[in-house]
Design brief:
It is built from eight helices and 16 strands. With 368 residues, it is an alpha/beta fold. The chain folds into two domains: 266 residues, Aminopeptidase (3-Layer(aba) Sandwich), CATH 3.40.630; 81 residues, Urease, subunit C, domain 1. The strands form four sheets. An eight-stranded mixed β-sheet has the order 1-2-4-3-5-9-7-8, with helices on both faces. The longest helix is centred in the last third of the chain and has 21 residues. 44% of the residues are buried. It binds zinc ion. The site of zinc ion has 3 residues, from loops.
Length: 368
């Protein structure tokens, strides 16, 4: 019987925002023997790969290919922290696998808390064009490293649920390698790992785990890696109830990262149990952050409608944590969607300098 993983947060990184410089200094100060610079970003920031273990099964993982998705970077930092206190777990894991983890593949986007890189290229759609400076670094490592598995680590917006009610705190995907979405042997390997993660996490966060649609994207990373024969697994960290700092997501993301690596160390390429993947519910796009119901506008004719608001995340100059800016994203009948916060405005006053809320702009009203 192996001991249980006792989750703990890396105390050096309490915020959702991670400054690239702070991350690089931390890695250099604490893990210099395990990291190497594998390239530089357009704005000349270093990109580091950490190599752990010497097991036979080779795993490649990378975080923050999208700059505004720090959960996976946190998960790896938390896992390293946990291993300091539970070295036996690490020893057992890294006897079976070798993990190459690329931290913050998009340091320029991470610094500005934006999805794309400094040239506005979405790196997860750059597999064929290779237009960005950063993505080819990952591609060449993937091509030359004899990897059997790839962990493509992301985050998703708060709009997704597992069942229309509960947030999809974690979503997974064994991507397709062709338009007909064939369930190939390589896909089955990915599915088997996800099935094992699901089995171990579903009691911890019931109804908060989903799987993504397996529509084939010809230019995206996971789909192409699986085509190359690397069993790739997409992780998506999502909303956690009343937790826009995603502290809860971070915790379960860390556990899922560990469980994924553990599953790989046990399965070693086997597809055993892959069918259980199909039992995971599919992601549903069902929610907005806030919905104001039955808002009566100050128009000269009776106009009552719903207003949906979604938070835009941004990092302000000099801040060390992101801010949430409320943006009006839908106006009219929002009856088909739900809000993480729902406010019934019947009998209340719409207070604004404007007659009506403007779509795609910062919320310009209060309700009293
Ligand atoms: Zn992403």
């Amino acid at each position: 019987m192996t001991e249980e993983l006792n989750y703990r947060q890396n105390p050096n990184f309490p915020n959702r925002y991670i400054s690239p410089q702070k991350l690089f200094s931390f890695l250099q100060a604490n893990y210099s023997n395990f990291i190497s610079e594998v390239g530089r970003s357009y704005l000349d920031k270093p990109i580091y790969k950490m190599s752990l273990g010497n097991g036979k099964t080779r795993v490649l993982a990378w975080s923050q290919m999208h700059g505004n998705e720090s959960n996976a970077t946190h998960a790896m930092l938390d896992l390293l922290e946990i291993f300091k206190y539970q070295p036996a777990l690490a020893k057992q894991l890294f006897a079976e696998i070798t993990l190459d983890f690329i931290f913050m593949l998009n340091p320029d986007g991470s610094e500005k808390w934006i999805r794309r890189n400094a040239l506005d290229i979405d790196m997860n759609r750059d597999f064929l064009k290779l237009a960005s400076k950063e993505f080819p670094i990952l591609k060449s490592i993937a091509e030359n490293g004899k990897y059997e598995y790839g962990l493509n680590l992301h985050e998703q917006r708060t709009i997704f649920t597992s069942d229309g009610e509960n947030p999809a705190t974690l979503s997974f995907l064994a991507p397709s390698e062709n338009f007909t979405r064939d369930v190939t042997e390589t896909r089955k390997k990915s599915m088997a790992v996800i099935a094992q993660i699901f089995a171990n996490l579903k009691t911890l966060i019931p109804n908060q785990i989903a799987r993504y649609s397996d529509e084939f994207y010809p230019t995206s990373t996971g789909d192409n890696l699986i085509k190359m024969g690397i069993a790739s697994i997409l992780y998506e960290g999502g909303h956690f109830p009343n937790d826009y700092k995603r502290t809860g997501t971070r915790k379960y993301y860390t556990i899922a990262l560990y469980e994924g690596l553990k599953a790989i160390s046990e399965l070693k390429g086997s597809t055993e149990g892959w069918e259980k993947y199909l039992e995971i519910q599919e992601n549903i796009e069902s929610h907005y952050d806030i919905i104001y119901r039955n808002v009566e506008l100050n128009t000269d004719f009776p106009c009552v409608l719903d207003v949906a608001v979604q938070f835009r995340e941004e990092i302000k100059e000099g801040d060390d944590e992101i801010s949430l800016v409320p943006i009006v994203v839908e106006v009219g009948d929002v009856g088909k969607k739900k809000g993480w916060k729902e406010i019934d405005c019947t009998g209340k006053k719409f207070i604004s300098e404007k007659k009506f809320p403007k779509l795609d702009e910062i919320q310009n009203f209060t309700i009293e």
